[in-house]
Amino acid sequence: MNVLIDTSVWSLALRRSPRQLSPREAATAAEFAELIKEGRARIIGIIRQELLSGIKAQPQFEKLRDIVRAFPDELVNTADYEAAALASNQCRSKGVAVSVSDMLLCAVAQSRDWALFSTDPDFSRYAKMLPIKLHDVRQ
Predict the structure, then answer these.
(1) 105: domain CATH number?
(2) Are 26 and 18 a contacting pair, CB within 8 Å?
(3) How is residue 1 annotated by DSSP?
(4) Is residue 139 part of a domain?
(5) Whole-number Å distance between alpha carbons of 10 and 14
(6) What is the distance between the alpha carbons of residues 20 and 17, in angstroms, rounded to a whole number?
(7) Are strands 41-42 and 115-117 parallel, antiparallel or unpaired?
(8) Cα(132)–Cα(113) distance, integer angstroms
(9) Neighbours of 58 (CB within 10 A)
(10) pLDDT tens, 41-98?
(11) What is the residue range of 100's domain?
(12) Which residue from 10, 76, 85, 115 could staple onto 133, CB 3.0 to 4.6 Å apart?
């Protein structure tokens, strides 16, 4: 099964020094690397934009941009945006605040039968209301 990698994991693995990572974060970065080796890591444009945003140094931006260019964007279509809006409405009707980008990730993953890999605890809450699969570090 393919895995849609959230910005939090890309950033952890590519924007932070391995020496700065906790054991859990290091395991997450290693799992990310394994998913890449297996050819299962997926990205969409909003994740790419979030990952590349906020980088102050142009050379650092270009280096990260060049690394991420190895991963083509999964195309997002009208049905994905409509499904994201529906998911947002479902969560909000149950009192759960959501972000537009998180709901798009959920919709894309669900429609393609992919898992989501994130360090963001919000996705665990969404998984209680939406039929999404979450990927975790394998033992």
Answers:
(1) 3.40.50.1010
(2) yes
(3) -
(4) no
(5) 6
(6) 5
(7) unpaired
(8) 8
(9) 8
(10) 999 999 999 999 999 999 999 999 999 999 999 999 999 999 999 999 999 999 999 9
(11) 3-134
(12) 115
- The two structure tokens encoding residue 21: 């990572």
Alpha-carbon gap, residue 90 to 25, rounded angstroms: 31
Helix axis angle, 100-112 to 78-93, nearest 10° = 120
- Name the domain count of the chain: 1
Q: Which tokens belong to 91?
A: 């969560």
- Residue bearing tokens 């054991």: 23
In degrees rounded to 5, what are phi and psi of residue 41?
-75, 135
Identify whether 79 is part of a domain.
yes
Whose CA is closest to 13, among 25, 29, 31? 29
Q: Which two tokens stand for residue 124?
A: 């665990």
Phi and psi angles of residue 51, each rounded to the nearest 5 degrees, phi first? -60, -40
What is the three-class DSSP state of 41? strand
Asked whether residue 34 is assigned to any structural domain, the reply reads yes
Question: Does 64 map to a domain?
Answer: yes
The SS3 call for residue 52 is helix
Report the distance separating Cα 123 and Cα 14, nearest Å: 21
pTM of the model: 0.94
